[in-house]
Q: What sequence folds into this?
């Protein structure tokens, strides 16, 4: 019989520890110490309690835990000496059926990894869905992580150990993240659609109004109908809009959603997670025959990334009346105008002005999104509450010095444009770090006509400066521009600088942020507040209605806009649960 939370809370310490034996390989002390958090409100709370125990343990204890694990497809597996849990996990991933070449490759990687780090390679081989990783994915991950710095790799090993323990705990309690698995499966299926040139390589790229993009819209539409939405349509800019009616005809609406387009060779969860989480909630409401005192409008925004046309946030912008007719004459790389693409897709351009929403009908906008950063991953927290979407300013510039011979020009007589920009990069880094939550990046750096034996006379560069509030952003910009001017003057140079983009910060509406906080707390998960450094559709809706966001932890250091972008079905389940809790809060507050 599966263990229950009530049994675990009621058991004597020795008995409780015995019930949890095997969660961590040959290391029962972690679960035993985490039991101090009883009475437990949820498995999520206990999982985090175990995370905290290990995080606070001495490094020697952490290393001992890692070294207690067997090598993947190693001697213990061959000798049938694995623990029952490890044997089941390696078997689920097919490691017991390796081909001779695969086995030889894994043995080689095991030897290289142990020589570099001094402990065995740890990977949760049952994977983010819990059903097992393909062997080639395991081998590729093994090879990729060999290049990690030692301290980072130890932390990554511990994160994988916690994932292994999470899956084992689920098995022990006989629970499965059913709704999270459903959200996971939607995203996997949708990722089958990809633009030509990328699909053939197994890469995910879905840009505005391509065949793959329109296929995604149709697929989402069908799933919305299956979930029980009362109205489903693709609007005049390609947004997929589903409405689940409220209890009364005049009920207000809660808007939610995110985008379904992707960057080139991107990930499966950026944007799309924010469509499918609320869809899962609506499906549950429909199954229960339940209506809320407000309707739910889920929007799959058709364009956010600005990949095919430079009309970023086209989908969400259209809902606030921010569609520039001049965009219709933009051409893509093949010379197809936006107008032609929309007409080919059967969209009615004349209807675009009708898409503008009346904010008086809406309670607000909420968005769930994968974090796209390393913070939650490093903290081992599944969810984060967004306090603000950073405001940003971007520039492109060029530093002008004097080109000269690299061998004959003394160091004190040089006017090295690249060295000046290098000094600026360090100034940006130091100034942004001073705020704690500002960020500054020089992402483009180019020496036109550069040569190995010539002191650079010109250096082109970019500046991307972001902060959670506009005053903080503006102070950052002012200080960086002052540093740029000072560096150029001191080095006897001049520069050009052009502002290319300015976006206002979008602070979360306090009441809505607090609803997310209460939802996360109700799950037994610590509430972590954080700004969003990336832009989101919520920035556009912020212009006409209150908004707030919930972040979901990403794996692989939170990498995004990348095929390695990933999260687990357990974390997706928590996101669905948090969203459901927010809906229930709102139901008690709405007349």
A:
């Amino acid at each position: 019989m599966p263990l229950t939370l009530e049994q675990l809370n009621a058991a004597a310490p020795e008995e409780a520890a015995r019930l949890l034996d095997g969660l961590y390989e040959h290391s029962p002390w972690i679960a035993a110490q985490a039991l101090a958090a009883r009475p437990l409100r949820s498995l999520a709370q206990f999982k985090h309690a175990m995370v905290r125990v290990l995080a606070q343990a001495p490094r020697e204890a952490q290393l001992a835990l890692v070294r207690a694990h067997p090598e993947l497809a190693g001697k213990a597996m061959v000798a049938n000496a694995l623990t029952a849990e490890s044997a089941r996990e390696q078997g689920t991933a097919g490691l017991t059926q390796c081909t001779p070449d695969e086995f030889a490759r894994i043995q080689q990687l095991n030897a290289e990894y142990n020589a570099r780090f001094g402990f065995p390679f740890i990977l949760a081989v049952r994977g983010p869905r819990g059903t097992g990783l393909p062997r080639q994915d395991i081998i590729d991950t093994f090879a990729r992580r060999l290049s990690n710095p030692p301290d980072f790799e130890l932390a990554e090993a511990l994160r994988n150990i916690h994932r292994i323990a999470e899956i084992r705990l689920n098995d022990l309690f006989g629970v499965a993240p059913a709704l999270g698995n459903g959200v996971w499966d939607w995203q996997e299926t949708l990722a089958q659609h990809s633009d030509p040139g990328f699909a053939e390589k197994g890469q995910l790229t879905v840009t505005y109004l391509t065949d793959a993009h329109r296929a995604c819209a149709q697929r989402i539409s069908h799933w919305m109908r299956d979930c029980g939405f009362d109205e489903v349509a693709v609007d005049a800019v390609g947004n997929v809009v589903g409405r689940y009616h409220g209890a009364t005809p005049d009920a207000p609406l809660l808007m939610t959603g995110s985008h379904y387009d992707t960057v080139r060779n991107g990930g499966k969860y950026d944007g799309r997670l924010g469509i499918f989480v609320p869809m899962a909630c609506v499906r549950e409401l429909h199954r229960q025959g339940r209506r809320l005192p407000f309707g739910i409008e889920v929007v799959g925004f058709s364009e956010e990334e600005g990949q095919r046309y430079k009309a970023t946030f086209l989908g969400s912008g259209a809902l606030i009346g921010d569609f520039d007719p001049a965009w219709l004459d933009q051409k893509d790389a093949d010379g197809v105008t936006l107008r032609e693409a929309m007409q080919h897709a059967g969209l009615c351009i004349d209807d675009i002005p009708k898409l503008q929403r009346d904010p008086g009908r809406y309670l607000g906008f909420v968005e769930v999104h994968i974090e796209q950063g390393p913070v939650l991953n490093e903290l081992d927290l599944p969810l984060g509450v967004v306090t603000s979407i950073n405001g940003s300013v971007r520039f492109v510039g060029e530093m002008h010095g004097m080109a000269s011979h690299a061998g004959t020009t003394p160091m004190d007589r040089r006017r090295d444009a690249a060295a000046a920009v290098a000094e600026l990069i360090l100034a940006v880094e130091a100034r942004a770090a001073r705020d704690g939550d500002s960020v500054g990046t020089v992402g483009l750096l180019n020496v036109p006509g550069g040569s190995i034996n010539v002191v650079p006379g010109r250096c082109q560069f970019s500046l991307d400066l972001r902060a959670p509030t506009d005053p903080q952003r503006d102070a950052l910009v002012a200080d960086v521009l002052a540093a740029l001017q000072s560096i150029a003057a001191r080095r006897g140079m001049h520069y050009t600088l052009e502002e290319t983009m300015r976006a206002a910060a979008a602070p979360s509406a306090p009441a809505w942020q607090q609803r997310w906080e209460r939802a996360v707390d109700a799950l037994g998960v610590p509430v972590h507040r954080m700004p969003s450094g990336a832009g989101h559709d919520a920035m556009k809706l912020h212009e006409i209605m209150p908004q707030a966001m919930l972040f979901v932890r990403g794996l692989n250091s939170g990498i995004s806009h990348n095929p390695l972008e990933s999260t687990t079905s357990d974390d997706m389940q928590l996101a669905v649960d948090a969203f459901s809790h927010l809906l229930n809060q709102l139901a008690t507050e709405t007349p």
Q: What stands out?
A: The first strand starts at residue 231 and ends at 234. The chain has a mean pLDDT of 95. The longest helix spans residues 150-173. The two ends are 44 Å apart (CA to CA).
